Amino acid sequence: MRSTATPSAPAGEAPQPVSTGFPGSDAQSDFSRARRARLLADIGRRLRREPDDVALMLPFEEVVEALGRTGQHDLGLQVVPLEAIVGSVDRSVDFDRGLRPTSARLRSRWERINAAQRRGEALPPVSLFKVGGLYFVRDGHHRVSVAKSLGRTDIDAYVVEVTTRVKLGEDTLVSDLPLKDHERLFRERVPLPADARARISLRDEWEFGTLAEAVEAWGFRAMQNRGTYMDRAEVAQHWFEEEYEPVVELLRAGDLIAEGETETEGYMRVAADRYRVLRTHEWSDQVLDELRREERRRKWRRRPPPRQLRPKGR
Q1: CA 149, CA 162: separation in Å to the nearest integer?
Q2: Tens of pLDDT along 253-293?
Q3: Which of 195, 200, 153 has its CA nearest to residue 13?
Q4: Domain spanning 23-164: CATH 3.90.1530.10
Q5: What tens digit of pLDDT does each residue of 125-169 get?
Q6: Which of 49, 163, 183, 196 could join 192 in a cystine, given CB atoms 3.0 to 4.6 angstroms apart?
Q7: Domain map of the chain by residue range?
Q8: Rounded to whole angstroms, how far apart are CA atoms 128 and 158?
Q9: What is the predicted pLDDT for the residue at 305?
Q10: Exposed, middle or buried, 111 (CB in 10 Å: 0-12/13-18/19+)?
Q11: pLDDT at 307
């Protein structure tokens, strides 16, 4: 398979390296340029106050463990876009997420591969894992880095696709993995259909466990009331249709979802208040009226005390 990679840079990006006709010398310049680009990217990230792990390659094993591995299959030889390669099987790899070298000790091998590519020598395809729409390097880190530094847009690779329970987003960071892990466990305990699952949104990863316990408790009460057994999928579906959806609609109508909250966070907060204040698991207009009054009392208690004016003359 021939790569469709081209050495021209897209508009708006840094100019591509110029060939002097001496591949060894050009390779040295390319490595220094790649290192400078990495340092400038770090400075820009700090000035923008971005998280420290924005520039880190994603660790493959931690990612698939957090997402819940379900299987894999061989896709064979493919042409892969370089911008979609975001991680590595090697946790200690010396490249950042932009595939730039982060250590000077890579220079010798990196420059040899660069010079070989500049001379037009054929190099073997790299080996990648695919998770969702993103790729992780199994073998060929230097070749991937050099290809990107030379302005290529894609690379030939032998690809193995790994399937997972939870989808991997393109903007996923290393610090997001605990959230993905808790989300995966929630989906195992509360197996909702895809459209319903898409509405469950929590920013605090620990809340997924709390919500799973609440759904399981709801299912236990429902089975007692109905006198029949339900499996996890049935509990999840009945909870979503009979509890979550109608309650969220009531909360929206009653303006009880706070600004900045997701509907799931609003549901959990108000449901907790309902039991704490009223000791009930039921929903009704009377319950909502009492919760509104409790919310007004809470906001009033949060108001700062009025400032006392100092007497004149003092």
Answers
A1: 28
A2: 878 788 889 999 998 888 877 656 555 556 666 666 666 66
A3: 153
A4: yes
A5: 999 999 988 899 999 999 998 998 888 899 999 999 999 887 776
A6: 196
A7: 23-164, 190-302
A8: 6
A9: 55
A10: buried
A11: 56
Give the full edge-to-edge strand order of the sheet including 134-139. Answer: 58-59, 85-88, 134-139, 126-131, 154-164, 69-81
Which is nearest to 183 in space by CA: 163, 162, 212? 212
Residues written for the chain: 314
Q: Write down the pLDDT at residue 7.
A: 44
Could you tell me how many helices (H) and strands (E) the chain has, helices first? Answer: 11, 6
Tokens for 283?
């929903």
Cβ contacts of 198 within 8 Å, gap of 6 or more: none
Question: What's this model's pTM, rounded to 2 decimal places?
Answer: 0.51
- Amino acid occupying residue 110: W
Q: Report how far residue 239's alpha carbon sits from residue 249's, in angstroms, rounded to the nearest whole number.
A: 14
DSSP label at 55? Answer: G
The secondary structure element, H or E, covering residue 216 is helix 206-226
Mean pLDDT in the chain? 77
